[in-house]
Amino acid sequence: MSLAPSEHAPATATPAGRGATGQTGRTRPGHRRLLTRTSVPYLLIMPAVLGFAVFKAYPIVASLWISLTTGNGAGRHFTGLDNYQRLLNDPLFWTALKNTALILVVQVPLMLGLALLVALGLNSTKVWLRPLWRLGVFIPSLTGLVAAGVMFSVILNRDAGLLNWVLSLFGIDRVNWLGSPFWARVGVVLVITWHYTGYNAVIYLAGLQGIPQELYEAAKVDGAGPIRRFVSITLPQLRPILLLTVVLSTIGTLQLFDEPYVLTGGGPDNATLTVTMYLYNNGFKYFDFGYASALAYALALIVAVLGFLQVRLMGERK
Amino acid sequence: MSHRLSRRRLLQLATASAAGLGLAACGDNGSGGAGGDSDSGKITVWSWTTAAEGLRSVVPSFERDNPGIKVDVQDVGNPAIWDKITVGLASGGKGLADVLHIGVDYLPGYLDKFPDGIADLSRLGADKYKDAFAKGLWPTVMGKDKAAHALPWEVNPLGLFYRHDHFEKAGVDPDGISDWNDMISAGSKILDATGVRLLGLDKTGATQDMDFFQNLMQLQDVFYFDQDGKITLASPAAVKALTIIKRLNDAGLIADTAGQGTEKRLLSQGKLATYAEAAWAVEYLASTFPEQKGKWRSMQPPAAVPGGKRNAIVNSTYLTVSGSSTRRKAAWQFIEYALTKPAQINRMFASGGVFPALKAAYDDPKFSAPHPFYGGQKVLKPFVESLSADARATNFTGDYARALKFASDAQSQVLLKGADPAAALKKAAEQLAQQTGRQQAV
């Protein structure tokens, strides 16, 4: 089957040009050609569509089915919405959701604000060695998530960690970074912020460079100061990019897994348990794939609703 | 005209391939029992670290005695092996090795959730070894079908290792310690005299290593579940166990071992006065901290309650044959060879430090020989004796991982937030019941 297109390729290459005029059917009656002007685009997207069907669509549909069942590989049976009902009564699910929401509300604005400041700095013509700084800011996002987690678990170690050593130089007492519920959350926020600020800063930088200089010059002529120019020109011009990063970061945070998994294992006492971690535990530690699938669908629903709201609230108003 | 045809053809093509995939996926379902019984060829074995090393030491003589079979032992690593086995079983046995090394904490879950995933060994003749292994182990190899699905390899009777030098400096006589009340007062003396804490625990629960809490329950013949699978996490014995941990913590006797490598660092710095671990630690301590030679001794674990029993089986590990293996007989032959012959199993003990479950193995003189690392103490002897005493196997059930999680949360609440043990365990037991649908024992 797969050989067919190439066998026909030489024969159809030229007539294909005429195909659009409706001549092809007559010139070679009874012989249907695979390569025509209209079929080629389909052929080109075929690999992506097939990949999507196998690796995305199939799991999406299958996990919907699994979320409505209980039992094991061989003996799965339909239980309707039982898993979803169980979810609503599961205190750990709510804890995980609360943790995720807390990280979302604290970390995303913090990181994006920081990224914007960094981008403004990198965009300034007064800064020397700009390419070097840009590289430095972006490099953390090239680090693997697990590697970053392991690195920070060493840095944040209470007794032998780098950070506590640095703090001790300033006479600050050792902080039990990963051992107390509050500081463990701070630790996770720290790692994600370290990892993604540069990435967002680079996106903002691209946005900043796309703002026409004339706008600033005109504003200057009209007597606008730097803060006025930032509020009235930079922010409105960056709006679509801000929206993009807010939505991407929100989705990323809702799916947060690697950092708490490596750093804290969700502890202490579930202070850093995220929805995705809880999902993983249910699937691969407790072998409860039905419940894990229900969790996945609940999470997808939350992501969809939040994404929709953000686009509605921040998007361009026509 | 032509474009409609080609579009339809493309659609047909896409549908056909999607259907093919769907069929392939269906074919996977439940094929766990669809392996074969070939008794020759190449079999692969999954194990981890030192145990894998031990198994490799058996291979040459096995291959010599069984010319038709080749054995490939792979060190998959722990805990990676659990993810690998779980994924393999969940996909109907695809890609699993023929022989799987599985711990008692995972085996019941696998048997429960993947009934065809692990092969029936009774059918291959395993039942004749029913009485060959340490007491209490055989029930743990049985599936719901009343057939054996594993052979015990390793058994870990509980011990208590202590720093002879710290004890001596504090004037503590280990023979005078018979329960954890005694141990707590001894611990305070040692802390005062040497500044060394009694033991290490991961207070955050990140590793979910709840062995110490479990041991304190096992010493009272209680676990998260009773023999009927009902929840006993809030039982008086469990509360007693967590209360001992709270008292240790309140007295400042627990060093926090949270964080990668912390426990090992504290041990190597001599900052832990005891190491409440099982038999595997005999060789672990000796080989990891050779410079501490002569400083360690072992004793029977103190009882959880005054006058209570002083022996417990911490855990055990097994060799199993995957249900999807096409060479189940060959795999069984290897397991039988490795685990039921004293010479072979002691060879693995020597090279991998895996404490044997096979009773006949204990006749070897090394089990009563003095150990130089422990100041010439006959360190293995009490472990063997504790196995022949009233040691009971624990019912881990298929929901052990969940129970572990809730117990670990309860312990963290007590250690980090000063929660009341009874209240924390009551909440944990309720959550466990809600999530598993199991009842609480009355």
UniProtKB/TrEMBL annotation, chain A:
Transmembrane segments: 42-66, 101-120, 132-156, 182-206, 238-257, 289-309
Region (Disordered), start-end ranges: 1-31
GO cellular component: plasma membrane
UniProt GO BP: transmembrane transport
InterPro entries registered for this protein in UniProt: ABC_transporter_permease, MetI-like, MetI-like_sf
Record's keyword terms, sorted: Cell membrane, Membrane, Transmembrane, Transmembrane helix, Transport
Record-linked PANTHER family: ABC TRANSPORTER PERMEASE PROTEIN, INNER MEMBRANE ABC TRANSPORTER PERMEASE PROTEIN YCJO
Family membership noted in the UniProt record: Belongs to the binding-protein-dependent transport system permease family.
Name of the protein described by the UniProt record: Carbohydrate ABC transporter membrane protein 1, CUT1 family (TC 3.A.1.1.-)
Originating species: Streptomyces atratus
TrEMBL record, chain B:
Keyword Membrane recorded: yes
Record-linked InterPro entries: Bact_solute-bd_prot1, SBP, TAT_signal
PROSITE patterns (UniProt xref): PROKAR_LIPOPROTEIN, TAT
Any single Pfam family the record assigns to this protein: SBP_bac_8
UniProt keyword Cell membrane present: yes
Keywords per UniProt: Cell membrane, Lipoprotein, Membrane, Palmitate, Signal
SUPFAM superfamilies: Periplasmic binding protein-like II
Gene3D superfamilies: Periplasmic binding protein-like II
Top-level taxon of origin: Bacteria
Signal sequence, renumbered to the chain: 1-24
Entry-linked PANTHER family: ARABINOSE-BINDING PROTEIN-RELATED (PTHR43649), POLYGALACTURONAN_RHAMNOGALACTURONAN-BINDING PROTEIN YTCQ (PTHR43649:SF33)
Protein name: Carbohydrate ABC transporter substrate-binding protein, CUT1 family (TC 3.A.1.1.-)
Lineage, uppermost ranks: Bacteria, Bacillati, Actinomycetota, Actinomycetes, Kitasatosporales
